[in-house]
Amino acid sequence: MQLYSYPDPSTWPALQQRAATAEAPQVAARVRAIFGQVREGGDAALLSLASELDKASMTRLLVSEAEFAAAASQVPADLQAAIRQARANIEAFHAAQREPELRVETMPGVACSRRAVPVQRVGLYVPGGSAPLFSTLLMLGVPARLAGCPQVVVCTPPQSDGTVSPVILFVAQLLGISTVVKAGGAQAIAALALGTVSVPAVDKIFGPGNRYVTAAKQLAAAEFGVAIDMPAGPSEVLVIADETANAAFVAADLLSQAEHGPDSQVVVLCNSAAMLDEIRAETTRQLATLPRRDVAALALENSRAILLPDAAAMLAFSNQYAPEHLILATDEADALAKEVTNAGSVFLGHLTPEAVGDYASGTNHTLPTSGYARQYSGVSLDSFIRKITFQRLSPVGLRALGPLVETMAEAEGLTAHARAVTLRLEALAGEKTTAAAVSNPYAGLIRPSVERMQAYSSARDEFEGMAPVMLDANENSLGSVGPADFSRYPDPHQRAIKVELARLKGVAPNQIFLGNGSDEAIDLLVRLTCTPGRDHIVICPPTYGMYEVAANLNDVGVTRIQLTADFQLPANAVETLAASTAKLVFLCSPNNPTGNLLAQEAVEAILRSFKGLVVVDEAYADFADAPSWTTRLAEFPRLVVLQTFSKAWGLAGLRLGVAYGSPALIAYFDKIKPPYNISAATQEHVLTALASAPSLDAMRAELLANRHQLAQQLPQVPGVAQVFPSDANFLLVRFTTDATAIYDQLRARGIVVRNRTTQPGCAGCLRLTVGTATENALLLQALKEIGAGC
Q1: Which of 125, 591, 706, 783 has its CA 20 to 30 A from that of 665?
Q2: Residue 279 and residue 266: Cα distance in Å, rounded?
Q3: Is 536 annotated as a binding residue?
Q4: 125 annotated to a ligand binding site
Q5: For 94-129, how does the pLDDT look when each residue is reduced to its tens digit (9 = 90+)?
């Protein structure tokens, strides 16, 4: 193995190059020629190529019934038992990957579903030659049978006497596969892609192989319309080892891949020079005892041992390399595994050799090689199925969805698309049930008194803008007391802000409500939907306290769904809410006081099943990487998203909150809001902030960096038991000692944090807002002093 010590990252791409890359043009030319031979000669060309390349003289390509019948008696009983157990493990793991048919009503009357159907004709390539890989047939045949593929064709290279390995035939019989073709290499792939008299053409080709097989699969996909599982070429393994590794184990793992073939590649990364020397020496010792040492030795010539400074560098190299197999030979395997982004399959710890994945653990060993793990996954049950979507619209659905489609189609200039909807809507126009009655997603949700009421109309609702003489709104025309001219009422519709905010957020101005802080929107939501003394809302503690305050002020009941220990929605939340008669559910994400995002899947399920309004409070969303739920408003008409200018914008003193929803829902907000709820001063300052919105990114980046640094340093402070993950601008921290006493001592030092010890699930916790670097340093120093004195 070639040794490299602390190579500069700029040289890593050269070290990550696979040996076969330089020969790619010659390989491609040879493969293309073989495809031409098979296209022209069919079976005869396959027999001729078997003689030329496999040194096998044959008169027929298909394995006969007699050959199948004789196979089992040639396979030792202990090997048969091992194969049966491996099959059971592989079947268990792949069967668990089945998904039920997906059915979703995306909006009332619009039913969408997705169903899995098997690929009809699949070809399985099983490498043979000097080492027939019957395990590959298990890995491909088991999921093919589980998926229900009607036609399964196996191609495998013949032995020199024209036969196929009896173990491969035994596995084929075990899986109920009767079509086995004696053909290997690029010619087998050509036969599966093109079809011959003996070899049926297939829809998708699976299986690993050498660089010729890989090139043939890529050609089949590019020019003959045949799908492939992935580009799977010569085998490879990368081992990350540290001083805790066992050199003998690592050497054995390296050689287990090297013995596959001379073009295999093995790489070992280590941060200990002594351990790396020991691994290399042990590899040399073990190589001498291998029956396939000549093959393994050739592979080792193109393999590398690399000394790197630390685990971070080893992970960075590995993620760039994207190995087929990655072994984490370290005591810290679980922690390192969380940072793996590119790998086919990962083997954790000292007792997990790559060989178990090759044969019998249950995972699939058909994996992307040559760096394709950056784009591809290994073979799974999904590889053998296709997922077809279906949709059906009822009259209710067409009336609700049709106008949206008409608008979008006309905007793209696709008139026939719009007409396909318009004709159907016109056909429904004569029905007794009106569109308004069947397509209103808020039917039964809005308080009857709100539906009946006449909205207050201010003077500025009747006249927009200014005139030379303004005598309509009973203002003081003599001017104002103070430096600015605030003598006139502000724009009650806040038009300019909504236009700029709509552009920034990718919504329409009529999807925006501006409130005196998000608290006004919360209060209006309760008043809009809940009749005092009768209705109730749902909250998920620990969460923002104003939801319950607004309910209590409006004489509205509160139902609580407690978050789990890791502050996620419990498993029964969706079912509970689906059966609930509540008018509102408030979901704070990122949550306050915990800082975490709620799982997207759970929120989606609630949006699809809950009959009331779903309010996602995103006051802290600017500090999270997840997309805003404002991007999903078109899907979910009962969704309301709350945001604020108080957090990331740094404009808490202006008290401006934002609610996003459908235009119809926002119209209800405007109906019941106070006429001039946003002051002129606030409107002017917010417009200035919106004009300089790009500076928000720099502020956000600085705060996130401070949050990361604070989260890294807090666990080192005496008395800190846990720092919870956060997607907000604060951290929830649990202490081993009395958190209230710590809170009091911090106050005595002039540092004010938030005591959350009385909130559900937050015993012993303080909430620490992320401050400036100086403020954070003062906080840490104070906590260290307090902890040291306990």
Answers
A1: 591
A2: 13
A3: no
A4: yes
A5: 999 998 888 888 888 898 999 999 999 999 999 886
Name the burial class of residue 405, with classes exposed (0-12), middle (13-18) and buried (19+) by CB atoms within 10 angstroms of its CB.
middle
Instruction: Provide the domain limits for residue 294.
Output: 2-18+234-362
Those residues with Cβ within 8 angstroms of residue 347's Cβ, 6 or more apart along the chain or in another chain: 325, 326, 327, 328, 353, 354, 356, 357
520 in active site: no
543 with 607, same domain: the answer is yes
Contact (Cβ atoms closer than 8 angstroms) between residue 239 and residue 250 = yes
Residue 384, domain member (yes or no) = no
Of 324, 354, 520, 618, the catalytic one is 324
Adjacency order of strands within the sheet including 102-107: 102-107, 110-118, 385-393
pTM over 0.90: no
Residue-wise pLDDT for 153-191, tens only, equals: 999 999 989 999 999 999 999 999 999 999 999 999 999
Buried b or exposed e, range 97-112, using 16+ CB within 10 angstroms: eeeeeeebebbbbbbe
**365 tagged catalytic:** no
> Is 187 annotated among the ligand-binding residues?
yes
Angle between helices 185-194 and 43-53 (to 10 degrees): 170
Per residue in 368-423, pLDDT tens? 988 999 999 999 999 999 999 999 998 888 988 999 999 999 899 998 999 999 89
Q: At what angle do helices 24-41 and 185-194 cross, to 10 degrees?
A: 50
CATH of the domain at 546: 3.40.640.10
Q: Please pick, among 282, 325, 520, 618, the residue that the annotation labels catalytic.
A: 325
Token pair of 160 as six digits: 């020199």
CA distance 779 to 775: 6
Indicate the residue type of 638. Answer: R
Residue 358 marked in a binding site? yes
**Matching residue, tokens 């916790």:** 765
* Side-chain half-sphere exposure of 749, counting CA atoms within 13 A: 18
5 in a labelled binding site:
no
Q: Is 493 annotated as a binding residue?
A: no
Query: Of 216, 211, 217, which is closest to residue 234 (Cα–Cα)?
Result: 211
User: Is 547 marked as binding a ligand?
Assistant: no
C-alpha closest to that of 541 among 761, 720, 727: 761
Please indicate, yes or no, whether residues 272 and 421 belong to a single structural domain of this protein: no
Q: Is residue 377 part of a domain?
A: no
Question: Hey, what are 763's tokens?
Answer: 């015993």
Domain endpoint, select from 658, 677, 693: 693
Residue 665 lies in a domain: yes
For the chain, the domain total comes to 5
Residue 592 lies in a domain: yes
Helix (H, G, I), strand (E, B) or coil at 411: helix
Task: Identify the H or E element spanning 228.
Answer: strand 227-228
